[in-house]
Write a structure and sequence with these properties.
This protein is of the alpha/beta class and 460 residues long. The chain has helices spanning 2-15, 38-41, 45-56, 74-79, 81-85, 112-134, 165-183, 191-202, 220-233, 306-310, 338-343, 354-385, 398-407, 412-415, 418-424, 427-447; strands spanning 31-36, 63-68, 92-95, 141-146, 186-189, 242-247, 252-257, 259-267, 270-277, 313-318, 323-328, 331-337, 345-346, 453-459.
Length: 460
């Protein structure tokens, strides 16, 4: 696996050069909205990105919003800009489309090439309407974002490939790139690097994919790869959580980057010091969350060098001999020999550390916030995917329910949201859930501040 990771890292560098910044990092107070389709709507990549900011920049509160609706094309997105996207008052707007725009089954028909051209032209025509609207937002940064790929190369039993679909998607992305250049907007791409990672790992496992069993919707690991690639585009590759080096013989801190080291003592067989970091390690969820999910967020470490590039909390101690037990705040973390400590160990990979446990609480609060936000996306689907066409946008009255009930048996997607809408149609319910999300975000920014940790190395 180590050899594969090296190859994947090299492939990734080819598309998103290490340390290159093509998208400006978010700044304090930013309201970042990710506009997209079901990959955004039901996905977690934006939540994973926010988790990075929550843990890496504990004193810089921002807000990140899910602006996705399942099934949307650029045409559908354009119709909901005012009521759904601009109403969030974005300071930064990420724009991704193309999966639904490019079409599906006809790629395996007799006129696949003509179909692909037709869908491309339709998508560009629809996007140009959005492009005009974006130009009217002088105080909003626009980031054109190439969609994750349709995986045509994975060998997935029972799933027929729509041949050349991703070629149409790539043409749409190229138009996005050109639009960004014309308008002075920013651009980043998920498609090319994810295709490269897929193909590299498929050499060992032909069924591997970052794009889910339907070749479209990434699993948790795929969404974390998307978060990694976006953060890489923001210039965070090579940015450590902290980097500390202690000379045990001299009782000196040789290096203290991203942290403060103090009160170094050598008493008997113990080396101890106080450690105050400026950030927390990034916690990786080991649960496969979501309906139909098979892989967890933590699977990302097998696929891209996230830990090496963005989640290193390095502890290096020289001048030791023998084996040492590491304790942080009197909690035993593990045992390492002097040679390993001299090379350095990554504390961010140790889930037992108190700082990692602190970050885990933030992760779970953020996941709870994500779940609440999803109810608003389902509500938005009802409004823009159904009621808008019926002339009942935001009616939220008895008439709306009656029209919904007349159609639920004919529309499985509507039927699945009927119960949720019957609650969310009431402003009091929506207000209560908004307030609950605000409480969760406030709690996150209350508990995400690093505290002084007592580190002890005890010779065995």
């Amino acid at each position: 696996m180590k050899k594969i990771l090296v190859l994947v890292a090299a492939v990734c560098v080819g598309y998103t050069t290490a340390f290159a910044q093509t998208v400006k990092p978010f700044k304090e107070g930013d309201r970042a909205v990710f506009l997209g389709n079901s990959i955004t709507d039901g996905g977690r990549y934006h939540s994973f990105i926010w988790l990075y900011y929550m843990t890496r920049f504990p004193n810089m509160p921002i807000r990140i919003f899910n602006g996705g609706i399942g099934g949307d094309t650029a045409y559908d997105m354009n119709k909901r800009l005012d009521g759904d996207i601009f109403s969030k008052n974005p300071t930064v707007l990420m724009v991704t489309f193309g999966m639904n725009d490019s079409g599906y089954y006809e790629y395996n028909g007799d006129n696949a090439k003509e179909f692909g051209e037709q869908k491309y032209q339709e998508s560009i025509k629809n996007f140009q309407q959005m492009e005009k609207r974006f130009k009217e937002l002088p105080h909003t940064r626009i980031v054109m974002t190439g969609t994750s790929p349709y995986d045509e190369t994975a060998q997935i039993k029972g799933n027929t490939v729509f041949k050349k679909k991703n070629e149409t998607i790539k043409r749409i992305i190229e138009y996005q790139r050109e639009s960004a250049a014309r308008n002075g907007w920013e651009f980043t791409d998920w498609n090319a690097p994810m295709v490269a990672i897929n193909q590299e790992l498929q050499q060992k496992d032909p069924s591997f994919t970052l794009c889910g069993n339907d070749r479209i919707h990434p699993d948790n690991d795929g969404h974390m790869v998307m978060a990694y690639l976006f953060l890489k585009a923001q210039g965070f590759a090579g940015k450590d959580v902290a980097n500390m080096e202690i000379n045990a013989n001299k009782k000196q801190a040789v290096k203290a980057e991203g942290c403060t080291i103090s009160n170094i003592k050598k008493i008997g067989k113990d080396i101890s010091f106080d450690y105050l970091a400026e950030a927390l390690p990034y916690p990786l969820d080991t649960i496969a969350r979501g309906w139909g999910s098979k892989k967890s967020q933590a699977e990302v470490i097998k696929e891209v060098p996230f830990m090496e590039e963005m989640n290193t909390e390095l502890l290096k101690v020289t001048g030791l001999k023998g084996q040492y037990k590491l304790l942080i705040d009197n909690q035993e973390i593990g045992t390492w020999d002097a040679a390993d400590l001299a090379k350095g160990i990554n504390l961010a990979a140790e889930s037992k550390t108190p700082q990692y446990q602190q970050a885990l609480a933030i992760m779970h609060l953020n996941e709870y916030r994500w779940e609440l936000e999803r109810t608003f996306r389902e509500y938005a689907w009802c409004q823009f995917g159904f009621f808008q066409q019926k002339g009942l946008l935001f009616a939220n009255d008895r008439k709306a329910i009656e029209v919904m009930d007349e159609n639920v048996e004919k529309n499985m997607w509507l039927k699945g949201r009927r119960d949720l809408y019957s609650k969310m149609m009431f402003k009091e319910i929506r207000d209560a859930r908004e307030q609950e999300m605000d409480v969760l975000v406030s709690k996150i920014y209350e508990i995400n501040k690093p505290v002084v940790r007592k580190i002890i190395l005890r010779k065995i």
